[in-house]
Amino acid sequence: MPILEVKELKTIFEIEGGTVHAVDGVSFSVEAGQTLGIVGESGCGKSVSAMSIMRLVPDPPGRIVSGEILWKGKDILQLPDEAMPEMRGREIAMIFQDPMTSLNPIFTVEKQLEEVLSKRFGLTGAAAREKSVEMLDMVGIADASTRVSSYPHELSGGMKQRIMIAMALMCEPELLIADEPTTALDVTVQAQILHLIKSLQTRVGAAVILITHDMSVVSETCDRVAVMYAGRVIETCDVFELFEKNRHPYTHGLLASIPRKGLTKDTPLSTIEGVVPSLIHPPDGCRFADRCWKAQDRCHSESPELREVSPGHLAACHFPVEEGE
Amino acid sequence: MTELTGGAGASEDVAILRLEGVTKFFPIRGGIFGRKVGDVQAVNSVSFDVKRGETLGLVGESGCGKSTLGRTIMRLEEATDGRVLFEGQDLVHANKRELFELRREIQMIFQDPYSSLNPRLPVGEIIREPLDVHKIGSKEERVKKVEDLCLSVGLKKEVIGRYPHEFSGGQRQRVGIARALALEPKIIVADEPVSALDVSVQAQVINLMVEIQKRLGLTYIFISHDLSVVEYISDSIAIMYLGRIVEKGRKETIFAHPTHPYTRALIASVPNPNPRERREQLPIEGEMPSAVNPPAGCAFHPRCPFAIDACKKAVPQLESVKDSGDATHIAACIRKDEI
Hints:
The structure holds two protein chains of two kinds.
Chain A: E1 4-15, E2 18-30, E3 35-39, H1 46-53, E4 62-71, E5 74-75, H2 84-90, E6 92-95, H3 99-102, H4 109-121, H5 125-138, H6 144-147, H7 157-170, E7 175-179, H8 187-204, E8 207-212, H9 215-221, E9 224-229, E10 232-238, H10 239-244, H11 249-256, H12 297-301, E11 307-310, E12 313-315
Parallel strand pairs in A: 3-8, 3-9, 6-7, 7-8
Antiparallel strand pairs in A: 1-2, 1-4, 4-5, 9-10, 10-12, 11-12
Helix pairs in contact in A: 4-5, 7-8
Chain B: E1 15-30, E2 35-51, E3 55-59, H1 66-73, E4 81-86, E5 89-90, H2 96-102, E6 106-109, H3 123-133, H4 139-152, H5 169-181, E7 187-191, H6 199-216, E8 219-224, H7 227-233, E9 236-241, E10 244-250, H8 251-256, H9 261-269, E11 319-320, E12 330-331
Parallel strand pairs in B: 3-8, 3-9, 6-7, 7-8
Antiparallel strand pairs in B: 1-2, 1-4, 4-5, 9-10, 10-12, 11-12
Helix pairs in contact in B: 3-4, 3-5, 4-5, 5-6
C-alpha cells in the first residue's frame, strides 16, 4: 500500500481576472522508502501540489476545492487545523528551493534548531546544542561546533540548504518533500546535496517527493516519475520507462529538447512550439493538443483520462507515442 | 596600439577580441572613515583570444567572476588592470567618443528577460533605441529596420506596439536579442541568456542564437553555468574558478579530456539524463571559497584531490597541455601532465 496517495486533487487561486485552476485533478502515489519525482515546467502545478499536501496553500487567494490526500490511508484534508503542525515536520517534512529565505536572518542556526528540538523532544541547553552539532555533522557541515553559532548570512547557499535538510530530518519524517532543492545551487554543490538526500533517505528509510524542472536530476535520483503539464499529471511511470519508453508526446518533446551529449550546433535542438495554455480558461480536451504533433480532432474536444498503457505505466493521451516514433 | 595579425595568417584565425591580463578588483571599505580594507578579486589576470565567428563558452560556478568578466569586456565595469582589444583597439583605455563607436561592435544579452527590458516602452521602441542613440538612418528607415529585426528573431510585426509584460520569457529574450542585433555588432556577449527559461523554450532561443550566428557571422561569448548548453553551443570553452581561467581549449577536448582537476569535477557533477548511468561517487567536496581572501597558490588546492605542497606556493600559469591533440588546449595546474 502506498504511504501517500493523492486522488483527483484540485487547488485553485482566485485572483483578479478569474480563477486559476493551478492543480486540476491530480493523482499520484508514493510508496514507503521510494523517491517520486514530480517534473514539469514553470506553472505546471508541481509546487502547488506539494503545498496542498502540506496544507500550506495561502488562503486566500488559494483553496483546495476537492480531492483526497491519503496519508497512510487517512485523508489529510479532513484533519482539523490543530492536527497539522504535528503532521508537518514529524511525519511529513518539506524543504524549499530558496534556502536563503527559509531561515530566519536574525537568529543563529543553533537558536533555530533549538526551537525545533525543544518543541519536539523537550531538549534545551547543552543537550540541544549537542544534538544540533550532531545534526550539522550528519549533513556534512565541516567544523559543525563553530558553524552552529553562525547567522544565516554568514553561510553559503549550499550550507543553508544542508541546514534546512538537517531541520527537516531532525524528526525523522516518513516523507520528505523537496521542492527544487538544488535549483539555486551550483552544479558541484547540487551533486553534493542530491547525494546527501539519497544517503540520508537510505539511513532513515524515508520516502521522498522530489519536485524539479530538471530531467537530469530526475534521472539521477528518482525511482518513479510523474510528469505534470498545465495543472495535470500527464504521464507517470518508472524512471527507466520514462527515459526509454515514454508515451506522452509532451514528455517525449521535453526530453528531446535537452541538449544531449555529443550533439553539436549543426543539428538544431528539438523544440515544442507554442506556449502553455491559460489556466484561467483551460481549453476543452487535452491541454497539450495545441502544441502536439499527433493531435487530432478528438484531442481538442475530449479530455484524455490518465490510463494504464502498459503495466505500471499511465499516460493521459488518446494517441500515445509508439516505439520508434 | 597593437595591430593583431593573428600569427597563422588565415583571416578566420585572426582573433577578433584579445584579452590581456584583464583584472577587476572591487574594493571593500570598512571602519568609520571608509578606508579600503581589502579587495574582492573578482577577475584576476585573464588573457585569451576569441576567434572571429566562433562561440567561446565561459563556464564556472556563481561567484567565479564570469559575469564580471563579461561586463568588464563591455566596459560596464572599469577594469582595474589589463587590456581588451577589439580588432586591435583597446576598449579599456578608449575615450568617450571611441567607446561610443566601439559599443556598436559589441553588444550584450542579459539573463533576465524580465528586468533587462524597460517596462514603460513598447518593444518597438526598445529595439529602436540603439538606432536612435547612434542616429542611424532616417526615421522611416529605422521603423523598417525594427520590423526586419522582429522578423529575424521570430517575432511578428504586430508585437511592435506591445509592452514587455505582455510577453512570455522566451519572447522577451527574443526582444533582447533583436535589440542587441540592431547596431549590427560583430560580437555578442550573452550572459546566461537561457538560464531563466523553461527547457522547451530554452531550446527555441538556443536554436535562434545559432541560426543568427550562422547568418550574420557573429562571434559569441556565451557565459553560462549550464555545461550541457555550453557543450552544445560552443566551439571553444574557458573554465573559470575564483577569478582566473583554469583551463581552455576546443569544446571536444574539454569534454573528452578535461585536464584541470576542477574541470574534471565540474563535468562529473553534471547530472546525467540517462538513469542507467547514475553517478556512484561524489565528484567533489566543499564549495568555492570567497574571492576576498582567495587561498594562496592555486586557488583550487583546498578542494583538490591531487594537491601537493607546491600547489600552495605559487599561482599556476596557463600552459599547453602535452599530447592533447589540440594546440589551443591550456590548463593552469602544475600536475596537469602527470595526473
